[in-house]
Amino acid sequence: MKILVMGLPGSGKTYLTKRLQPLLNAAWYNADKVRSMANDWDFSIEGRDRQSNRMKTFANFEDLNERFVLCDFVCPTKKTRENFNPDILIWMDTISEGRFEDTNKIFEKPDIKEVDFHVTNWNDKNHINIAYEIKKINKDV
Q1: How many CB atoms lie under 10 A from the CB of residue 87?
Q2: How many CB atoms are located within 10 Å of the residue 44 CB?
Q3: Pairing with 12, which of 92, 94, 118, 135 sits 20 to 30 Å away (CA)?
Q4: What pLDDT does 124 receive?
Q5: Between the CA of residue 3 and those of 29, 42, 64, 99, what are the distances in Å?
Q6: Calpha distance 64→9 (Å, rounded)
Q7: Which of 37, 91, 28, 17 is nearest to 59 (CA)?
């Protein structure tokens, strides 16, 4: 099951994913680590599309091996989200602006109907509640 944790830089994607990963016993791909491995720090539209494809490749591998996989990255446009094609979409909607103006300019909020978990504020149980619901969804599939 491919799980995308997306949102603006600084919204808490990695923070949440770090706490979800052991609860789901999931593989985890962080955007900065994947960019570092690829040595690709291009944040143009093309670079962001490339990053979405890279993240999708890792996620598809884990999914084919029937593992939960968490990918945390900005995934700023409808196109990058459609390309990644998550089974579960978690939107970290905790800030109105990120720290990078170029990302703020191109960031397209997802349609709320496409979001499985919409996190608007933090509490000590967000990750526990989300993990519980994801496991419940997986049993229903």
Answers
A1: 17
A2: 10
A3: 135
A4: 86
A5: 10, 24, 14, 24
A6: 29
A7: 28
CA distance 112 to 139: 24
* 104, two tokens: 């703020």
Sequence-ordered list of residues with C-beta below 8 angstroms from that of 139, at least 6 positions apart, any chain: none
pLDDT of residue 140: 63
128: left (phi over 0), alpha (psi -120 to 50) or beta: alpha
At 74, list the tokens.
Answer: 């900005």
Closest CA to 26 of 55, 63, 54: 63
Contact 71, 55 (CB under 8 A): yes
Rg from Cα positions in the chain: 14
pLDDT < 50: residue spans in the chain: 141
